[in-house]
Structure formats: structure tokens, C-alpha cells
Amino acid sequence: MSDPKILETPVSDEQSQPLLTHEKSLTQKIGHGSEAGDLLDQQLVMLGFQLITQLNTLIKTSRIHGRTNAALDKPVETMLTLIQTLAHDQPVTLRVQNDFLFLGESHLKVSAQQMIVVSSIIDTMNKWRIGGLTFSSSASSKDLREFAYLFVSLDPATKSLEDFRQELKSHDVTSIALEDPRELALKADVDASSQGTAVESNPKVTHKSQSKAAYSKAAGSVGNLTQSVRDGGTLNFKQAKRAIQNIVDLMMQDEPTLLGLTTLRCHDQYTHNHSVNVALLSIALANRAGYPKVELADLGLAALFHDMGKSTIPLDVLNKTGEFTEDEWAAMRNHPTEGVLSLAQLRGITNLPARMAAASFEHHMNLDYSGYPKLKTPWKLSLTGRILTIADCYDAMTSSRVYRREPMSPSKVLNIMFGKSGKSFDATLLKLFVNCVGIVPIGSLVVLDTDEFAVVLKPAVTKTDGERPLVKVITDAQGNPIDNGPELDLTEKDDVGEYRHSIIRLVDNTEYKFDTSRYFV
Amino acid sequence: MTDLKTAQEMMAAAVAAKGAEDPEIASVKRVLKLLDKTSKSNRTYGSTNPVAQKFSQQLFEELTAHLAAYSKLTFLVQRSELMCKEYVVYQAEKEGGSESIAFKLYSDGIRELVLHQGLTQEDLMFFLDSLWGGLDPTKDDDDIVTRLWSRNLSTLSIVTAEEIAKASVGGDGFIRLDGGMNTSDSTLRELLDRERSRKGRGSQGGADGADQGANPTGGGTGSGGTSRNNRFQSGLVGYEVTEEELAELAKEIEAESKQDSIMYILDMLTTILASEKSPELLTKLFSLWGNIIEALLREGKWTVLENVLGLLHETEAVRPDISVEHKQQLTDLFNGIGRPERVKAIETYLNRTPNANTEGLSTILLLMKSEAVPALCSLLANLESPAHQAIVSETLQVLAKDHPDPLLKGLADRRSTYVHNLLSIIIKWNNPKHVEAVEKLVRYPDAQVRKEVVRAIGLFRPSGNGMKLVSFMGDADENVRVAALKFLMSGQYTAPFSIWSPIVSAEEFMERSMSERRAVFQAVRATCGDEAIPYWENLFTEWTWTNRKKKEELAILAAETLGKLATPAAITTLELGVKKGSAAVRQACSMALSQMQKVQRGKPPAAASR
Description:
The complex is a heterodimer of chains A (521) and B (610). By secondary structure, chain A is of the alpha+beta class. Chain A has 19 helices and ten strands. Chain A is globular. At the A-B interface, strand 3, helix 5, helix 9, helix 10 and helix 13 of A face helix 4, helix 6, helix 7, helix 8 and helix 9 of B.
């Protein structure tokens, strides 16, 4: 066997240009170091399908031409561009579970036209019993050629997946990994297994995992659509709608777990935690106000896009650390109106939900109209707007973002907000909101009467026990940090009827820049 | 030997098992086959078609029976198959692709679908509509998953591949921590140290820096200390939400759910228009109104658009401060209502919605400028419903009166309904200037159009040269000929007999009905007078070898006509007929003469002597 001449083909920008028509926004995001989970959904689908197509071409070409032929140049180059784009932050995995294709954890939706190529890849991977192909950004032309050649030259009937791995290793291909096959369990089996006692099958763990996934999806869809607005594209809420519907379902099952995720504060505009937090808080509040389930999703979607008007503000202004100039403030004050106009323009007035328009227009207006925009004609604040005002203010003030440079602790924020009950905020809704997040709000850092430090996980079930939430201990009495500390229900009493544990003080964690979100994610 | 026997027994058992299919699987297969059939017939013929309804009913009955027996129907989705208990219960046809139920579910990422007992026919139809997206084609925000979720069906549940993948493997790519804050143990340590030192100071001089819980009354305490008496108290007052407050919220939620979304957003935009100071936002708002006009036209919301335009009309009164540029934008908006693409949008909507409510449409069309006339002509040409055509015709009658060229050009169009409508408009204008354009249509293929052309010519040329009208005598349609004859018989027109001669001499003339031939002779009398007498005289005297009966009929009609002509030359000709004609002709001529004498006697002396 002759020593193959491996071609290391540099990928130029020009070559990648026609492939990645969406490149501008994606590279911009990646260039600013966004998370992989923040990749735009539509782009993810497009790139995922391109990766599959090129992989299919590579394998087929390799079967005919071996590994060095120039016929492989194009698929290799294109694949490299795709891998470098997709695996910028972390390796990207193309996974097959049963018949479903995933890119990372995201299901790849395929059209009937794409099915021929997709079927070919699924069948090929199934033949080898490969569960997933992971490509890291260090993948080279040589790696891809070697991989494809081994793929077609080894016989899956006589060689195992482990043999394949060994061959890759012996050919020095370390940037491509083969995953074992994974089967999708039946829902009933998953549910049954989560009844077990093992930590990994704990329903709470499963629920938390699902909540986090829903949170990520929602954040991703906001990112997607915000970028679309910046690029002058269209607005399709399909992905966001699914994410919000999922959140509503999860919220119905376990509200505190989802509200716990709102402790993820937002400090720049590349992540869209604020929008998701506002959506979660709004859904929780609306749920308590009595919204029907389907309408909760409508409200949640509206909340998710309440800040769409900011998409026209330059990112360097949004993320500015110094004081705003007068013009910059004007732009910030205009964002509610800007949002309505953008949404109406991109969606069309007949296709824009009223709640979405209200959420954007009214979320800074305040109950007494002391906020902005200032109006010259009478305007009745909607229920949606009043809910959004509370949720937005709470999350904004607890985050160190735009309106305040320093975050405040949840309890301080609630106190401030209560000072404006009936003025800036609807009094009834604010009371309901406290019932959601708790008098000692979720995410608060507290000192117990045992001198232990703890984080509030969940408000007390009954209002009379308002100051006795469920907490997680994070230090011992000596102040030593504890991993996996116990969760304490502060309503529990001892044999003589005394409370076992009580809060003696709340600690402003933000003063120390200590983030409690780690205990929720 | 024993092994062989065992193997044979196992084989036999396997074959027997295969032959006797699990009744549940057989039932699932039947249901899915019917589901496939129903889906196909619904898509092909529409759900109201009797065939589709028959399948729907069968499907519902079969499914209900299955659910009654097994309580639920669960199947797993693969790209071209549906599985139930590891059996393939549905397979897509080859090349079926997007038509296959399995692929439809698969492509939306649905892994499992469960139908539960209690599923109603309505639920089932909603499910089918969801599969094929037939609910509202304009809403592309939905897929099968979101549609079914929105319906909140307790009898149908789905599990997506993504959901089950995450639950199976606990995938979690969720690491998004606060960039401005820290979670490290060192920070926690720092926090603890500082808290401890603060606590030390606190024990000497109070709870400095302690946070407080939320407190609506401001009465909460955050006092430090380790004793139970010093524990945190929130001052829990005022958090209770009363039943009245909840009832009030319920009312608001209901009202919000029922509100008209478009009207609400329009109100919002109106408020912005009245209040906004930012020139950039106003520019954006004015350009948005253009989109709104288009959207409302597309959706056929004429009365809403009427309101919007009314409101925009008042903008300058409400906002006298707007800039010249914005005033120009406003002017452009009004001038642009009739832009071709907008008129096209009206066409699309109306043709898609034959029974559309057209209230307000006329007002919208009349707000268009004369520049919209060509587009409106095109709209009139393409509209399918006569009721819709009538509305546009009325508009064109007003808007195109001083700009008739597009309509006159349109007369050359091949679509007869369109040309007919145009002629109706032109007739209503009653402008003789348009007669030449109309006269070009004498040979238009459609008889209704030609008849309308006759009407138009009669209107635009009420007297004088009748040659154009005579040219209709060769028309293939009797109604057209009769319409032209009515005008020619009126006595207002003249035409030389040389034009009539080929018509009345033609063989086919004799094949026409008696009434028509009589009308032609009367028209000849009215337009030519004595000039035609030689022709009629010839009918009395010519010797006919062929077609004698028909020619005799003509001669009788000629006698009748001459009697009505009643000029001296006519009388002379009739007298000739009495002498030389056949028996029937003689009788007819005599009768005509006697009728004429009766009429003469009945007239006053002055008239009789004339």
C-alpha cells in the first residue's frame, strides 16, 4: 500500500462564502464568544444538513476514489468550513438515535427533499452501529480523508466499532470520535425509570434537565430572532413557540425549578437570559393570576420578545459599561415603541399577537404612566403590560445590566418594588408575584440560626410560612463551603414543636458578586 | 434427532404464531390504513366531500372500537414506518415521501403518538388537520407539535425525539453563568469572611448590611444574631390576594383573550402617531402604515382599512408639528393606495373568498387615484365573482371617466366577461367619443359582447348612417341581429340598398325566421325607402324554379312592407303584384292595398293627402 499523499487544503474565506450565506450573523456571534447552545436554530438546521450532505458526498467519493483524489477536495474543504463554524466553542456531534438525527442535542428537522441524503447517512451509520460522530475544530483535511477511507474500506460485518476506533487511532486521527449507539427509550420506560431512587433517574433531576433544555431553547430562539431583526430578516416564531409551550408544561409541573433558573442573570446582549427570565416570571405570575394554559404560552411568547426593540440599538451601546450619552438614552427610551414598529413590520399587523405588541409597548410604561413612552392620548394599560412591567423590572434590577450597573439582591428588589405598589406596579399582581418568587425570593442567600449559609430554592407552600422557604445549605457552621449540602424545609418542626431551622438574616450576595445560580443549574 | 425435532417444533410454532396475528396489532393496522385513506381523501377532495366524510366516519368508528378494547393506541414513529409493539403497523408507499403519515410525524421530530380512549370525532379531525397543516395556511408559526399543544387535548399525547433523547441520556449543554458575578469557592470564602467580620461588628453594634425580605408594609426586620428570638421576620402583611381581586383579574383575562388583535394594535399605532416625537420612529411608523394598508387589503379587512385611512386623513390636524418629510410620506401613502401590487392583493383575496364581505371595499377603491385605473382594469378582468366585478365596475365608472384609455384598450381583450363589463361602463358614460373604439368589436367572438356593442352603437349614434348596424345582419347570433334590427327599424337611420342587397339576396336569408325576415324588410323600408322597391317588385314577378314556397313567403312579406311604405311607388308596385303575382302574392298585395286605404281613411285629411 503506497503512502497516501495527504492534502492539507487551507480553507479560504472566499471558498466558504457561498456555503455559509448566513455567515455574517453566525461569525459575529461566534466572534463575540457566545455559547454553542446559543447557535441560531434555523442556521443550526441549515448547517447540520450541509454537514450531512457533505459527509455523504465524502463517503461516496471516497468509496470510488480512495483518499487522495482531487475529487475529495471540495467535500473535504466544505466540511472543514462547517466543522470550524459549528465546533468553534466545543466539538460538534452528529448523532443518530433510532431514526432521528441530532446535531448536538438538537433534533434536525428534515424535509422530504432532504430525506434521500439523510436516509443514506442514517443507513450508513446504522450499518456500523455508530451512535454519533464527533468532530472537533482541530479536524484537518487529512483526518477527514483518513476517516472516510477507513469508513468505506473496513467491513462493518467483520470489524467492530472498537476496531474502527483503533484504526483511527493508528492513523493518528484524533479529531473525529465515534460514539456508541444510543437508543431512544419509550416515554413510559423513561417515566418508569425516573420513579427509581438512583440520582440519575431522579424525577427532580430529569425535570431540572428538561427545564434547562427548555430555557436554552427559548434563549436560542430569542437570539435567533433578534439577529434576524438586526439582519432585516423575517420573524418566524415556530421554534420559540415550541420552547415556550414546553416551558408552560414544565411550569405546571414544578414552578420553583423553572423560577430557580431565573437566577441566571444577564450581563450582555449576546445571551438572552433576561428575555427568558422575563418570560418565565411572567408565565408564573400569569398562572397565578388565572390565565388558561394555552394563553400562558401566548403571554410567554410575548414576554420572550418584549425587548425586540433593542435589536436596532448597536450592540456596543447595549453593552456599554460607561454612562450613556443623551442620544444613547433616547435610543434606549425608544425601544418599546421601536419594538412594536419592528414586530408589526416584520410580522405584519394581521399576524402579530396583541399581547406581543402590548408587552413591547408597555413594559416600561408603569401603572401610573410615569415611565416611557410618554403618551399624549389616553391609553389603558393591558394586563399583559402590567405583568411584564413587574417581571421585567424584577429581573432587570437583580441583574447587573443596562439600567443598573450593579445588581441588587432579589429581596432588596422586592422591597423597592413594594415601595411602588399601586404606583409603578399593579398592587394585586405584585402581591401574586411575591407569592411566586417568595417573600424571601428564590435565589436569596440567607444565614440560618445554625450559622450555616443557605440559598433559597423554593418559596414556602403556605403563605403563613412565607419566611420559611425550602433552602439548600451551602456552608457549614464554621463557614466552610459544602458541595451537595442538604435541602432544608424550614417549616419542619422538632418533637417539641419548635422549628428545626430558621433564617436569621438575609445576605446581599450581589454585594460580594456571588452568583447563586450555580445551585439551580 | 431430538434437537432436530425440537427445532421443527419451534419452526412450526413460529409459523403458527405468524399466521395468528396479535388481534391488537391487526386492529392498529386497520385503524392506520383508514387514517391514511381518510387523510388522502381529505386532502384530495376536501373534508366536506361525501367520500372523505365516509372515510372519516369509518376511521372514527374503527378507532373508537380499538380504544374501547385496548384503551389506547400507541405507536412509535420512524422515517417511513409506524411501529406498535415492535411490529410494523404502517409503511409509507414508495416515493410517498411527504405524503406519508410516518414521514409527516417524523419530520416534525415526533417519536411517539398516543391516542387515548374518549377521543372525539372533532379531536380526530383536528389531529388530521394538524398533520397536513390545513387549519390556517397563513400561520406558518405552527407545526404539528405546537398545533396539538394549543388544542390541549387530553385524549392525544405526543412525545418528541428531542424530549425523549434528553430524558434518556440527560443531555445538558446548559452552562450559562453570570459573567458579572462569580460562583467560585474563593468568592464564597471571601463572602463568608466578610460576613463573619461584619457579624463580629454586628454583635457589638447591630446588623449592619443585612438584607431584608420583601415587605409591603415596610415593617420587616432583618436583624442579625443567632438566638431564636432574633430570627428573620418578614413582617408578613398584605400579601394576601382577595377573591374579589382574583375575580377582577379573571374578567380582565377574559376580555384580553377576546380582544380584536388588529384593532388593538391599530389603536396602539394611533397612539404612537399622536404622541411620538422621535423623527426616526415617525418615519418608521409612516412606512409601516404602508405595510398595514397592504396587509389589510390582503386580508380583506376593508372596513378596518377605511378607519385607518380616515385616521391618517386627520393626521395633520392631530399632529400639526410633523415635518415636511413626514407630510410627504403621508401624501405618498394616500397616493399609493392603488399601487398595482395592492390592487393585486385585493384580487387574490376576493378570488380566494367568493363570499367575502365587501362592505367598505367600494370606499377603499374610490379612494384610489386615477393612476390606479390600469390596475383596476386588470382587477376587473381577473375577478371571478360577478358581484365583485360589479363593485370594481362602479369604481372604474367614476375613476376612469376622465382617463378612459385603459378601458378602451381593454376592449381588445379576449375575456368576454371583462369586455362586456367594460362596455357596460362605457355605455354608462354615454360619451359618443368612444363609439369608434366600440365599433371595432362588431366581430367580437362573444355574442353577448356583440349585443352590447349594438346597444352602445345605438346609444352613441342614435340617428344617421346605419351602415354599422346593418353590418350585424350577417351576425351568427339571432339576438344580435334582432338587437341591431330594432335600431334600424326605428326610422332614425339611413343605409343604401346596395348594403342590404347581398343580405336579402343570400340563400340563407330565406332560412331565417319569419319574424326576422319581416323585421329585416321593415328595416330596409326604414333605411332605404323607395330605393328597395325594385327588389320587392322582382319578388312579385320573378319566375321561381326552386325554393318556390320560401320565395313566395318573401313576396308576401314584401307586400306587407310595401303596404307600410305606402309611397306612390309602393302603391304602383303593389298594383303590379295584384296583376302579375301568384295567387298568394296577389292576395297579399290586395290585402296590403286595402289595409293602406283603411289607414289613409283613418288619418286626418291633411295627413291623408300628404
